[in-house]
Design a protein that fits this description.
Elements: H1 13-25, E1 32-33, H2 34-41, H3 45-57, E2 61-65, E3 70-74, H4 76-89, E4 95-102, E5 106-112, E6 118-124, H5 130-137, H6 148-169, E7 177-181, E8 184-188, E9 192-194, H7 204-220, E10 223-224, E11 233-236, E12 242-244, E13 251-252, H8 258-276, H9 287-291, H10 302-308, H11 313-329
Antiparallel strand pairs: 1-3, 2-3, 4-5, 5-6, 6-8, 7-8, 9-11, 10-13, 11-12
Helix pairs in contact: 1-2, 1-3, 5-11, 6-10, 6-11, 7-8
Organism: Russula earlei
Protein name: RIO1-domain-containing protein
């Protein structure tokens, strides 16, 4: 869905209280009863019903009628507004511009702060493709409700934020992280092209070596990107240096399937260079050689640092159940 922030600045505090109440109620209800929304918001029932009607017209909530009771559920549009309001109150975002990217599970926009500095806003939207892919594979959702997709989108954003921060702090070629709220990540805007859009480079061998060196450097830091391909690599316009993006699928080298993820990253680059640039090299990294050579980036493992920052194994396990089925079931 497209982010439409037109009405955001005109919404009243009461409307945001009701929208927040629907979000809070969604933690335990697939459909949040109107009475519970009134209770959580602290507003009178009649006023809440009027506000809910207005929010529904703007597709920020959806009214649902079932055999037990009538109620509302939060839409991604409403979730967008809650996240944007949080970023706006922190003076991180002032205006929203054009959409510049659509991924399997995210939308990307150009935004600006009050001083006019452009940034990139990434909105995670698990469920758009994940639901179809997982439903075909097995009944992953089980008793989980539809609101769980927003919860998992929030987890994906939190994971990407955690990895983005630690990688940037350790001088990896990644965008500078700026802010994070709910399912959104705010990062610096780079003057760069996605590798998938580039037909020619001055030296394919040099770029190939740089990318393979990055895979190895990630592994020496205890990390595997997990989706290292032409869709998630940017090339700077000024100097041709690569920049890596998109980290929700990143895993530790201690992961039980680490070698498979590592080999897939390597093979994605080899396949792309062979197909796009007619370049193929017999030299490429092997997982067992890389993790067994005793090298460590800065003397410690960044996967341990990320887990210590608050995004632990429990949250990663929840996301992995989604990403495994998405990555093996969808074609870009």
């Amino acid at each position: 869905m497209k982010l439409d922030a037109t009405d955001l600045r005109y919404m009243t505090p009461e409307e945001f209280r009701v929208l927040t109440a629907v979000e809070m109620g969604s933690k335990n209800h697939e459909v949040v009863p109107s009475a519970l929304i009134s209770q959580i918001s602290g507003l009178r029932n009649g006023g809440v019903n009027k506000i809910l009607g207005g929010l529904a017209k703007r597709n920020l909530v959806a009214k649902v009628q079932n055999s037990k009771y009538d109620g509302y559920r939060l839409t991604y549009g409403g979730y967008d507004y809650l996240a944007m309001r949080a970023l706006s109150k922190r003076d991180s975002v002032y205006s929203v511009g054009n959409q510049i990217g659509v991924g399997k599970e995210s939308d990307v926009y150009v935004v600006a702060n009050s001083e006019g500095h452009e940034m990139v806003l990434k909105l995670h939207r698990l469920g758009r493709v994940s639901f179809r892919a997982i439903k075909e594979k097995r009944d992953y959702l089980g008793r989980r409700k539809s609101a769980s997709w927003m919860y998992m989108s929030r987890l994906a954003a939190q994971k990407e934020w955690a990895f983005l921060k630690v990688l940037h702090e350790h001088q990896f070629p990644v965008p500078r992280p700026i802010d994070q709220a709910r399912h959104c990540i705010l990062m610096e805007f780079l003057d760069a092209y996605p590798l998938r859009q580039i037909d020619q480079v001055p030296s394919p061998g040099k770029l190939y070596s740089q990318l393979m060196d990055l895979i190895v450097r990630f592994a020496h830091a205890g990390l595997i990107h997990g989706d290292f391909n032409e869709f998630n690599i940017l090339v700077r316009r000024d100097d041709g240096e690569p920049v890596v993006i998109d980290f929700p699928q990143m895993v530790s080298t201690a992961h039980e399937n680490a070698e498979w993820y590592f080999n897939r990253d390597v093979e994605c680059i080899r396949t792309f260079f062979r197909r796009r640039f007619k370049y193929e090299s017999a030299i490429y990294p092997r997982f067992r050689n890389v993790v067994g050579d005793g090298s460590k980036d800065d003397g410690f493992l960044l996967d341990v640092v990320v887990e210590a920052s608050g995004f632990g194994r429990r949250e990663m396990k929840v996301l992995e159940q989604v990403w495994v089925y998405v990555s093996t079931s969808t074609v870009r």
